[in-house]
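User: I'm writing a tutorial on reading structure tokens. Could you give me a worked example: one chain, its sequence, then its tokens, then a sentence or two explaining what the tokens reveal?
Assistant: Sure. Here is the example chain.
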Amino acid sequence: MKMKKILVILCFLPLSLFAQKKVITLKEAIKKAQSESPDFQATKNRYFAQYWRFKNYKASFLPELRLDASPSYTNSIQSTPQNDGTYKFTKQNTARGTLDLGIRQNVPFTGGTIFVSSGLNAIYNYNEDGSTVKSFSAVPFSISYTQNSLFFNEFRWDKKIEPLANESAKRDFVESMENISLETSRMFFAQLKAQKQLEIASKNMSNQDTLFQIAKGRFKIGTIAENELLQMELSKLNAENEVTNAELQLKLARQNFSRYLGLENAEFELDFPEKLNHFNVDEQTALEYARNNRKAVLDFRKRRLEAERNLAREKGSNVLEFNLSGNIGTNSQANEFNRLYEPDNFSQSQNVSLRLGIPLFDWGVRKSKVKIAQADLDLAKVEIENQEIAFEQEISLQTLRWRNQKNTLIIAEKAKEVALRRYDITKKRYILGKITITDLNIAQQEQDRAVVSYLNTLENYWNDYYTLRRLTLFDFEKNEPLTFESVYKE
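And here are its predicted structure tokens:
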């Protein structure tokens, strides 16, 4: 008989284990959100978009080797100019081909572009008698240089701005990951509070049912009035309704959280976060961390540089319009391809063109463009100064909030314990008939408020912790800055 009981227990044990809901901690939820949530995917895609933009920028200063080919064929009647200046319609049956191989290189120091190339051109004229007239030309070597402005160097400004944009993207990634931690914490506590509310409601319903049964017994022997019995029945019905509402709120919170974590509405319970070793951080230290690590600091510098670049561009084009294009090399021409690259066939080729434009009178258009760019720069400086003040104030306020959180959490936890003990004592005294139902209801309401208040305080504690990490990009547990290399895991 004992062996049968053991077998029955062993058969149902796996089913009971399987029925248990998975328990997730706050840190486990954050880890999953930072690797699988939609917010993480958006953060990663946003970073890599900037990463490839920066790669493109760096590649623009490397030599570009190009091969261009342009074959064409024409068989039609077209008008052609004659020696006496007239035109005549003639049938043309011609094949043409152009092949160019070249290296292009931007020159950051001057702001121009240099191009070294070699080219080949071929023309085949097919006559009506079946003969073919061939003509070839080649540019064995050619070096060209172009520059669009003498007073404004776009490349020099890009070298100042683009590295800032790239570093800003890295810090934006880290800040976004901390935002994911903060959002996960908020959703975690939303479900945890709903979970705890259901526990409270279920316990209250059980207590109210027990008290109602006791009240019915007392009513039968005449120790309480019908009014008190009805009060107990109403409390029992309200408790049942609270359970129904709590179940709905928990289901909704769990659906939202599981969707955010990518768990597909999985059934899971949340565990209370482990206690954090509370640390103190003064305002100046937090500001120092923020100035060294935050994206906003780089963005301030980047915005100022962009406004200065726009002003420099307008000033550069306001004085003199300048365009320089020069070419030097060799070329050759022959009716036979084999003779094309003979040394005797080579001749020098030079070409220089310069375009200058000096504004004489334009009704103040150019001057107004400079004034607009200057006003934009002044506005950017003012906005940046205001944002820097707000930046410092936000960190100062958050540091103060964090400093007070430890004591607030201790008080809330103590108040919860006192309220629970008081309700337990009050319930026992009511059962003994020493207090009224009103006193019992007040004790229950205070207990529920204390539990909810503790959960809200605990939520604020963890949210403030992750907010402080986001504002400073500093890991206070490991005592090290949060960098892209330490956060991003491929």
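What the tokens reveal: Residues 154-221 form the longest helix (68 residues). The radius of gyration is 40 Å.
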